[in-house]
Amino acid sequence: MADAQWDDLRIFLAVARAESLTGAAKALRLDPATAGRRVGRLEESLDARLFVKSPQGYTLTEAGQRLFEHALRVEEAMRGALSGGVTPADALSGSVRIGAPDGCANYLLPQVCAAICEGNPGLEVQIVALPRVFNLSKREADMAIAVSRPSAGRLTVQKLADYHLHLAAAESYLERHAPIRSLGDLAGHPVVGYIPDMIFDRELDYLSEIGTSRPEYASNSVPVQLNWIRAGAGIGIVHDFALPFAPGVRRLLTGEISLRRSFHLIRHADDRRVERLNLFAEALAQRLRAEVARLESLA
Asked: What range(s) does the HTH lysR-type domain occupy (predicted)?
């Protein structure tokens, strides 16, 4: 490892994260061939194969995964060294990438992270909104928010906040249809929800709880579903914290249909030693919990 230079490790990390030479080269502003040569040089110096190449991209070997964990610690040490050690203990700096379901990413994280960044000018936050579970072992993000606790992996899990969901419809839709006063009145109404075979977490299978399995209007995106409801396409389950962003949409049958879910913050176990990520996680938990409560009070 003594022969491996930091610059080679930096390229190695970029390839591992992008799972391709092209993606890594673009991120680092290098030629893909140069990135490939540098990875080859690193493999030669370590006498180990670090990647398996396939049509799907570059996948870490067992040796590559071991080096990946070590390289992350080197990267964190380099960030600390470059900061000069002058950052106050209660301040945040550097880049943090957080992955989250698109409902959380659209309606909660922008204002929460903006507030954190306002008090920490040296902090850069990247929000990756994807309707799926993030793979922290591949370091797609520094941390991720999920609605279910993971059952495997070297991960730490922290509960962030409970949130609530209710059946809702647009006033424009309700004006055109018979009143909905009970569960029995739901029959015949078009439903908005997730594409059934794209529900990546059982906690998102809301419609089964109201006796519906196949929505007439379906999307894997929470904002798309909410916009369909706002347009008067039908009825659907909506996050209470999203309702303030959807004027003209109101809750229905709140005494009969009320769902509660939880957000969990998931991190790689090795990151417990990274103080800036610990500080960010603490600030995120406090502000997200408060923001959910604020927005739900306006629903």
From this structure: 6-61
Helix, coil or strand: residue 144: strand
182 φ, ψ (degrees, to nearest 5): -155, 170
At the second CATH level, the architecture of 6-82 is: Orthogonal Bundle (1.10)
Q: How far apart are CA 61 and CA 74, in angstroms?
A: 19
Q: What's the pLDDT at 94?
A: 83
Hey, where are the domains in the chain? 6-82, 93-299
Would the pTM count as exceeding 0.90?
no
> Which residues, other chains included, contact 204 with Cβ-Cβ below 8 Å and sequence gap of 6+?
147, 194
CATH class of 93-299: alpha beta
What HEC string does 167-216 produce?
A: EEEEHHHHHHCCCCCCHHHHCCCCEEECCHHHCCCHHHCCHHHHCCCCCC
What confidence tens digit (pLDDT) does each residue in 145-177 have? 999 888 777 788 999 999 999 999 999 999 999
Burial 16-53 (b: 16+ CB within 10 A, else e): bbbbbbebbbeebebeeeebbebbeebbeebeeebbee
Q: Which residues contact 246 (CB under 8 A, 6 or more apart)?
A: 226, 229, 230, 238
